[in-house]
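Module 6 notes. Inverse folding takes a fixed backbone as the condition and produces residue identities as the prediction. Think of it as a translation problem where the source language is geometry and the target language is the twenty amino acids. Below is one complete input and output pair. Work through it position by position during the lab.
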């Protein structure tokens, strides 16, 4: 399947922001480098090199998002989403290198006193301008990165926010250098460099985990498992796995369903589960569902009856107009009554069966035993993966269970009467 339009749109937005940030970072780096060279400001020149490292990282992020947006092919059937993760790894390395460079500069300041000269007004102005520019770049990268779940943009945003602090430190450093107080200047620069190195190490570590398919979001796995278990027809969920692939997540899991469910119905349940996950979680790009029969041989069944006399209750001739319903838990060893339900909708004229189904759906039914069933009720039950078996009116529940275990019941594969007939009979 090709990359869906929603995913492509996300990636294009990320590319646009990354390349825009590249352009503005280039302007800042060139400006700081030129002013630092003209005014012989070693700190501003070092900051220009730092911005140059940021420039390469941001450009690499945009390039990675561009690769991730390429269509899937025979050679790359899962797409190039992980190109973005690989680029995040490179960004982390750049950040570590930049932090090491700043640390070296700060350490150097412990032992060298700058000669006092004229007040460096233009370098101070450029450093302040750099802090303001870094703020707007960081805010845009962070907002877009979270919206499209781009790890490289988020990493760049974190680095850009640190650039604000770095620019302020550089500004203070230039001023302190002018006042010939190098020790304080060096301490501040070393502290900031350690923060930058820490951020770089985190980006590298998270990227490596993603490339190694580690489960980076166990909380999301729990939410997805809970969501799947709410789907009618699912009898259990296991092994929910999430792989981070660039800005998207790939989900795999196993679901259990009734062993009585035909193969084509199991495929329908898998499709329903996949669509539910993708619709609920926007950053999930694909879902693979493996369906297997439930290990529990117990199934839940409902039977319309005329009276309440345990397993000796008499079967009613119509599903929707029965006064009572028995809920059974059935296994190879027999059947036991779980609950009784009183039909509170008997006085109503339309869609009684639908209302009964909505009331008893909480039991997660697998089977309905009935003599006849209307059109709407039939299709609603089929939509919820309930099998329907035909039984004889006035037979007992015990007799019906015995016939079921002896494979002597016929499945109802179509409504026994139309909607018009149901309404006519109700009136």
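Target side of the pair, the amino acids:
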């Amino acid at each position: 399947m090709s990359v869906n339009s929603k995913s492509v749109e996300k990636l294009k937005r990320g590319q646009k922001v990354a390349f825009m940030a590249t352009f503005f970072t280039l302007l800042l780096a060139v400006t700081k480098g030129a002013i630092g060279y003209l005014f012989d400001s070693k700190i501003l020149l070092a900051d220009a090199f730092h911005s140059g490292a940021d420039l390469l990282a941001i450009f690499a992020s945009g390039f990675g998002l561009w690769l991730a947006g390429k269509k899937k092919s025979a050679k790359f059937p899962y797409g190039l989403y992980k190109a973005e993760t690989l680029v995040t790894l490179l960004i982390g390395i750049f950040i570590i290198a930049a932090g090491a460079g700043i640390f070296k500069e700060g350490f150097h300041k412990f032992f060298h006193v700058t000669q006092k000269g004229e007040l460096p007004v233009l370098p101070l102005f450029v450093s302040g301008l750099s802090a303001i520019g870094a703020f707007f770049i960081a805010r845009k990268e962070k907002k877009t990165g979270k919206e499209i779940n781009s790890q490289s943009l988020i990493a760049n945003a974190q680095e850009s926010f640190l650039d604000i602090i770095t620019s302020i430190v550089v500004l203070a450093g230039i001023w302190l250098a002018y006042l010939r107080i190098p020790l304080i200047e060096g301490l501040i620069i070393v502290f900031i460099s350690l923060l930058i190195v820490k951020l770089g190490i985190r980006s590298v570590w998270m990227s490596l985990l993603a490339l190694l398919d580690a489960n980076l979001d166990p909380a999301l796995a729990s939410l997805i498992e809970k969501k799947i278990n709410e789907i009618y027809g699912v009898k259990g969920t296991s092994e929910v796995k999430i792989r981070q692939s660039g800005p998207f997540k790939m989900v795999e899991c196993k679901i259990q369903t009734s062993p009585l469910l035909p193969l084509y119905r199991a495929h329908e349940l898998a499709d329903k589960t996949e669509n539910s996950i993708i619709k609920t979680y926007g950053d999930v790009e694909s879902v693979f569902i493996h369906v297997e029969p439930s290990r529990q041989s117990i199934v839940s069944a409902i039977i319309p009856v005329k009276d309440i006399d345990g397993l000796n209750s008499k079967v009613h001739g119509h599903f929707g107009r029965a006064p009572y319903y028995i809920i059974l838990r059935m296994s190879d060893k027999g059947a036991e009554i779980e609950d009784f339900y009183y039909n509170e909708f008997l006085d109503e004229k339309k869609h009684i069966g639908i209302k009964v189904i909505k009331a008893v759906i909480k039991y997660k039914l697998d089977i309905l035993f009935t003599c006849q069933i209307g059109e709407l009720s039939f299709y609603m039950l089929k939509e919820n993966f309930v099998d329907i078996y035909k039984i004889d009116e006035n037979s007992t529940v015990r007799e019906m269970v015995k016939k079921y275990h002896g494979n002597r019941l016929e499945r109802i594969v179509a409504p026994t009467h139309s909607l018009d007939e149901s309404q006519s009979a109700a009136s």
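Reference fact for the lab report: The longest strand covers residues 234-245.
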